[in-house]
Write a structure and sequence with these properties.
Elements: E1 8-9, E2 14-17, E3 23-27, E4 30-33, E5 36-39, E6 53-58, E7 66-71, E8 76-82, E9 85-90, E10 95-100, E11 105-109, E12 114-118, E13 125-130, E14 139-140, H1 143-153
Antiparallel strand pairs: 1-4, 2-3, 3-11, 4-5, 6-13, 7-12, 7-14, 8-11, 8-13, 9-10, 9-12
C-alpha cells in the first residue's frame, strides 16, 4: 500500500444566525484530499433536529420556482449537494436571499419561515431534510395567510 497524503480538514461545524428569525447558516467540516472532497454532518451532533424524511429537488427547468410556502410545525434543512440555487427566507418582517453553492453549507428553516427556491443551475440537486413526515395540512401556501399567522403568533 502506498502512503496517503495528509488530509486537510476544515474546522468543526459552525452555525451563523441570520437576520431572519428561525434561519441559521451551517458550515459543516470539509475533508479534501487527492481522492476528492467529503463533507459530513452528524444528526446527533450539531444538527438542529432529527430528520424523519428527506427529498431531493433536481431537474428544475430554467426560471422555475420551488417552495413558496411555510410550515406550521415542520423544520427543514436545505443543502445544495450539487450545483447551485438561490433560497429566499422570510419571517414576516425580514427577508434574506442565500446562495447555496457548496455541499458543506446548508440552511436551517424553523417552522413559520416562508421559503422560496429558484435560480437552479441545470445540474442542481437540492437535498432537503424534514423533521416530520409529509402532511399537507402542515403547509401554508398563501403568503397573505402566512403573514396573518405570523401576526397572530407574534
Amino acid at each position: 500500500m502506498s502512503e496517503q497524503e495528509p488530509v486537510k480538514i476544515a474546522s468543526e461545524t459552525t452555525i451563523t444566525p441570520t437576520a431572519v428569525r428561525g434561519v441559521d447558516i451551517y458550515r459543516f467540516p470539509l475533508v479534501q484530499d487527492s481522492r476528492g472532497d467529503l463533507t459530513v454532518g452528524e444528526f446527533e451532533n450539531r444538527f438542529p433536529f432529527r430528520p424523519k424524511r428527506y427529498f431531493i429537488v433536481s431537474g428544475v427547468p430554467n426560471g422555475e420556482i420551488r417552495g413558496e410556502h411555510a410550515h406550521k410545525e415542520c423544520h427543514q434543512f436545505l443543502i445544495c449537494a450539487y450545483g447551485q440555487c438561490s433560497v429566499a427566507v422570510d419571517d414576516g418582517a425580514t427577508r434574506l436571499e442565500i446562495q447555496l453553492d457548496k455541499p458543506n453549507v446548508g440552511i436551517y428553516l424553523a417552522p413559520m419561515v416562508w421559503g422560496r427556491q429558484w435560480q437552479y443551475s441545470a445540474d442542481a440537486a437540492l437535498l432537503v431534510f424534514a423533521s416530520e413526515l409529509y402532511d399537507p395540512g402542515d403547509y401554508i401556501r398563501e403568503y397573505d395567510a402566512f403573514l396573518k399567522a405570523v401576526r397572530r403568533a407574534g
